[in-house]
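Q: Give me the 3D complex with shikimate-3-phosphate.
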Amino acid sequence: MSKIADNCLASNRWTVNPLSSFDAVLRVPGDKSISHRVAMLAGLGSGVSRISGFLEGDDCLCTVNAMRQMGADVERQGCCLQIKGTGGVLRQPQMQLDLGNSGTSIRLLAGLVAGCKGRVVMTGDDSLRSRPMRRISDPLAAMGIKVEYIEREGYAPLVINGGVPQSIDYQLPVASAQVKSCVLLAGLWAEGVSTVEEPAPCRDHTEMALIKAGLPCEVAGSVVRVSGSSGNRLDIPALEWIVPGDFSSAAFWIVAAAARPGAVLRVDGVGLNPRRIALVDILRRMGADIVVIMDENASGEPLGSIIVRGGALHGTVISGNEIPNAIDEIPVLAVAAALAEGVTEIRDAAELRVKESDRITVMSDNLKQAGVGVESRADGMLIEGSSKIPGGGVFDSHGDHRIAMSMAVLATYGRAPSSVINTACVNTSYPGFVENLQLLRDNQN
Ligand code: S3P
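A: Here is the predicted complex, encoded as structure tokens.
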């Protein structure tokens, strides 16, 4: 895959030493979800859009490469990404779209290419090929877009036979932003108005990006509505986009500070979309001292700073509507639970089983390795915390970036060095993770 810039993590194993308290200020790379959406809409626009803060992680580069294959020109100009869009149409790709490890790429692009006249083949790595795709092919089929499964029913590789979709009124069976976005993006090309209703609020970056791009999208409570172009070109102007830092990346450092008495951390320029930051409320409920400062001058997606002062945490219950707004942070919240006094219960989170790995099984196994009492459940975990983590374990990410980083955070709380193996996957979302961990180490008190 061609890269826009070199990424810096080469090793596939980390040794993580204990960390004492620190006083540090850092920024995290751009938001992954927003970067995907901006690459798609800028790639479809007319003229040249400029994007600052774009996340050059492997997942978003898969989306960039797919947009290139469909006619967009993408290049790096200084610290910005410059995308010359296709003028509102998609060229049928000559080759299959390889979407690597990226669920967001495959599910959102499946909707987008519903408007590309012809067959589009999509595939990915072993993890992506084991993740459920019926959740997108069902609504696409109801829109008259035929999805073929090449090897195994319900899993990539798959073929989208694009054309002019019919409109749909769709009630999401799961609170999934990827499925919601797939239907909305297909709806952009449809004849007539499509609606998607979500069972619980899940991330709304697609709606926000469509509205910013001037596309006919409206939100009314739990229903999102888009008007389709009946297969005609989409009219998207060239735009300046600013991608805030990824809250999901900041979450690792928030937990690295929150349970460490004496630690002080400030993360600047981080996205504060309310549908992404349930971790703040959850950690506060666990006793954490966290201050959120909104940047009142930000236009578009909300952003600002987060200040954390470390202290003692206690257990809580994480469940219900809180889950979709903390879904990618559950592994690192499990780490916070492991460090908290008492029991934490995570439930209603069965979606964790179909992420980059089965995050309930993989986190439970790793926490056991770390000497933490865990019981895994069909839809969550019961974690018996303790502020005393022995350290010295070997933790396997199973190729899941968020597991690797979560276990590295836990390892910093150990009393002896630990190892995390299979860490190359971290490049999917957080190039520079190791450097930021080093920054905390350099700022120890
Ligand atoms: C994402 C939505 C979430 C999240 C994923 C990114 C997105 O997935 O877990 O990392 O960008 O829309 P689901 O929509 O499957 O919950």
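A quick observation: The pocket of shikimate-3-phosphate is lined by residues 33, 104, 176-178, 181, 203, 327-328, 351 (CB under 6 Å).
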